[in-house]
Amino acid sequence: MPDGEAKVYASWNGSTETVAWQVLAGPTPFKLAVVVFSTPRTGFETDIHAQEVGPYFQVKALDSCGNVIGTSPTTYVKIRRNRRK
After folding, report:
1. Nearest Cα to 50, choosing from 15, 81, 7, 9?
2. Span 11-67, pLDDT tens digits
3. CB crowding 41-68: b at 16 or more within 10 Å, else e
């Protein structure tokens, strides 16, 4: 991934109501903002490209009306920077 981007993986085993995912990210677990408002669920696991503003991320499951039906724990992800020569 290029600097400034992240790939987030979302899944909810057994959920039949989840139709989309929302991704939040931020510099602390208490300062998260939506970086992907809604991306369709694609099969068991959905990979979502986001403009990274982490290193903290959270994913919310959305139903067909756009309601939040589940929220992941906030997770810290160590950001790897691409080295340029």
Report:
1. 7
2. 998 889 999 999 999 999 999 999 888 898 998 899 998 886 789 999 999 999 999
3. beeeebebebebbbbbbbbbbbeeeeee
* pTM of the model as a whole: 0.83
> What are the residues whose beta carbons fall under 8 Å from the beta carbon of 49, sequence distance 6 or more?
5, 6, 7
